[in-house]
């Protein structure tokens, strides 16, 4: 119980630190409207009622998936910084099938989603097998896979599904769009669909896998002490490769959930790495790599993003808004530092008793 309280307190401190830094930026740039702007950030999606809540859920869906990707690898002692590349490959495969596979009918979007997961898994397997067999640092190899994935997808889009008039991919078929199931009407948000429930399903699945299965125990054992796990008869090389493969599949599905949402999202032929992968790192850090924590941290970050967009009402330039959002998101990395400090404080207090 005490460990959970420490974890929650460390994440809360990280959030407070990020928000206070954001308030400082507001005061520096426009002190007159700083407090009103800060209240808008805190209100987030709630500023626009039920429609804003729907927008928060829509934005949270892909970053929950990339957060699960990074967090799952963290739990097994690996740093999957390649979620952006895996996300991009998954998005491309989903869009490609979404355009070319209209003959699939009602299962079109399901096939596209599964194929996106397979593509992401393959892209995650590569740094995983390099780590397992040749002990190549997964941070370096997965960063390189991000760039390879970005240029590779640009080439594939240009050669296969390119709209030359708009420098982007062609629109997917209507049968490839993820069903909305009335959520867009309920929340008055045209982008919202059952993707949020798909993300919730994977949150529960990853929690069960990590906390309730022998396989999950073996993965975490390898992450905490590779040598001890090997001594206990656990195949660490296999688990390293599997961990990165599963992490890649999660990120790939995240890419499909975004680009099959029917929200006017297209694959752009530009040299920009998908930001959802890096947001996933912060989501995982803020959620302390716990699937349930990642769910709530993903929703919180989406909430802050929506609130930041409303700051333009107070004459803040878009660059300032982006800066505030980035600071708040990346302050999630300090949750690990706060957790260590809190643990030391509690240990010292117990020793004095």
Features:
74% helix; 353 residues; 15 helices; two-stranded antiparallel sheet
Account of the 3D structure:
The protein has 353 residues and is mainly α. 74% of the residues lie in helices and 1% in strands. The protein is built from 15 helices and two strands. The chain has helices spanning 2-30, 34-43, 49-75, 83-100, 108-134, 138-160, 183-186, 195-212, 214-224, 226-231, 236-259, 275-286, 291-309, 318-330, 334-352, and strands at 162-163, 168-169. The protein has a two-stranded antiparallel sheet. Strand 1 (162-163) and strand 2 form a beta hairpin. Helix 1 packs antiparallel against helix 14 (318-330) and helix 5 (108-134) packs antiparallel against helix 6. It is globular, with a radius of gyration of 21 Å. The two termini are 20 Å apart. The mean pLDDT is 90.
Tally of DSSP β-strands: 2
Give average pLDDT, whole number. Answer: 90
Measured by DSSP, the beta-strand proportion falls in under 5%
Distance between the termini: 20 Å
Q: Which strand order does the major sheet show?
A: 1-2
Describe the protein's topology:
Blueprint (H helix, E strand, L loop, with lengths): L1 H29 L3 H10 L5 H27 L7 H18 L7 H27 L3 H23 L1 E2 L4 E2 L13 H4 L8 H18 L1 H11 L1 H6 L4 H24 L15 H12 L4 H19 L8 H13 L3 H19 L1
Antiparallel strand pairs: 1-2
Helix pairs in contact: 1-2, 1-14, 1-15, 2-13, 3-8, 3-11, 3-12, 3-13, 4-5, 4-6, 4-11, 4-12, 5-6, 5-11, 8-9, 8-13, 12-13, 13-14
């Amino acid at each position: 119980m005490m460990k959970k309280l420490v974890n929650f307190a460390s994440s809360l401190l990280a959030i407070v630190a990020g928000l206070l830094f954001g308030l400082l930026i507001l005061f520096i740039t426009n002190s007159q409207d700083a407090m009103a702007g800060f209240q808008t950030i805190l209100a987030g999606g709630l500023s626009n009622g039920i429609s804003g809540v729907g927008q928060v859920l829509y934005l949270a869906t892909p970053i929950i998936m990339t957060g699960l990707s990074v967090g799952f690898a963290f739990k097994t002692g690996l740093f999957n910084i390649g979620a952006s590349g895996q996300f991009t490959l998954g998005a491309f495969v989903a869009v490609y099938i979404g355009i070319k596979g209209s003959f699939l009918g009602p299962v079109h979007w399901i096939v596209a989603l599964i194929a996106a997961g397979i593509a992401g898994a393959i892209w995650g397997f590569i740094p995983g097998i390099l780590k397992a067999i040749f002990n190549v640092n997964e941070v370096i190899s997965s960063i390189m896979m991000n760039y390879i994935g970005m240029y590779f997808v640009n080439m594939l889009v240009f050669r296969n599904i390119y709209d030359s008039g708009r420098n982007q991919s062609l629109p997917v078929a209507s049968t490839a769009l993820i069903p909305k199931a009335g959520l867009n009407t309920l929340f008055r948000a045209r982008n919202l669909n059952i993707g949020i429930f798909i993300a919730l399903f994977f949150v529960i699945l990853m929690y069960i896998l990590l906390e309730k299965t022998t396989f999950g125990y073996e993965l975490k054992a390898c992450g905490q002490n590779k040598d001890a796990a090997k001594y206990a008869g656990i195949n660490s090389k296999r688990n390293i490769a599997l961990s990165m493969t599963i992490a890649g599949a999660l990120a790939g599905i995240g890419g499909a959930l975004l680009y099959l949402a029917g929200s006017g999202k297209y694959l752009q032929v530009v040299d920009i790495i998908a930001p959802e992968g890096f947001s996933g790192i912060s989501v995982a850090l803020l959620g302390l790599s716990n699937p349930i924590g990642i769910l709530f941290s993903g929703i919180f970050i989406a909430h802050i993003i929506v609130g930041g967009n409303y700051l333009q009402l107070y004459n803040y330039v878009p660059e300032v808004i982006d800066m505030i959002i980035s600071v708040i998101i990346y302050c999630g990395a300090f949750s690990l530092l706060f957790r260590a400090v809190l643990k030391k404080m509690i240990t010292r207090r117990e020793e004095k008793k």
